[in-house]
Specification:
Largest sheet: 9 strands, mixed
Oligomer: single chain
Radius of gyration: 16 Å
Number of strands: 9
CATH topology: Aminopeptidase
Mean pLDDT: 89
Order of helices and strands: EEHHEEEHEHEEHE
CATH superfamily: Gcn5-related N-acetyltransferase (GNAT)
Helix content: 25-40%
Shape: globular
Length: 201
């Protein structure tokens, strides 16, 4: 399965801060969200995953698909993320923010939500792949504690670009619980700067 992580960080388009005064809600995505999921995928990735692919994710007991909604916006699903829960490992496979709302802290909020959910479900480790050229995404993941563990040659089929393999370990340690508190404060500060009203993150 093709995986794209962090592409949202490569687009610099944002709307004025005055536009972004809306409630932001985190929810577990379901079948009812399929059309919004596909719309966001097309906007961010040009149609990376098909309807059937997302259907499999929603049907799988090992897959967790989360979304950030702002009900008052014309774009109902502003961000989404997915991870596979395999034994004690959370493999993040999708992280996307709608191009209209990038660079406003939603990527941080989505990554935090994925890690917190994985932690709540008992994951000991988290991993993902990211393009070697995507320095902005790499910087974000490093801020959240990810370390480079390896490299996959010619991983991305569209241009044969390599992927870095990133890992975050010891997620069930007391130290990581403290890190989650710090990350929550970081996420809240960033979102508040763009006037998002936090509901349940």
């Amino acid at each position: 399965m093709s995986i794209s992580v962090g592409k949202f960080l490569t687009n610099h388009k944002t709307e004025p801060k005055s536009v972004s005064k809306f409630p932001l809600e985190l929810k577990l995505l379901t079948q009812a969200d399929l059309s919004s999921i596909l719309e966001l995928d097309r906007a961010c990735f040009g149609g990376l995953w098909t309807l059937e692919s997302y259907q499999r994710e929603l049907d799988s007991a090992n897959s967790v698909l989360l979304g950030l909604h702002s009900p008052l916006l014309p774009v109902k699903l502003v961000a989404m993320g997915c991870f596979w829960s395999i034994l004690e490992e959370a493999h993040i496979t999708i992280l996307a923010v709608h191009p209209r709302y990038q660079r406003q802290g939603l990527g941080q909020a989505m990554l935090y939500s994925l890690l917190k959910t994985a932690w709540e479900r008992g994951s000991e480790r988290a991993t993902l792949e990211v393009r070697v050229s995507n320095q902005a995404a790499i910087s974000l993941y490093q801020k959240f504690g990810f370390k480079t563990a390896g490299r996959r040659r010619r991983y991305y089929k569209d241009n044969n670009e390599d992927a870095l393999i990133l890992w975050l370990e010891k997620m069930q340690s007391p130290k990581f619980q403290q890190i989650l508190v710090q990350l929550h404060a970081l996420v809240c500060d960033r979102l508040n700067n763009f006037c998002w009203s936090l509901v349940n993150i």
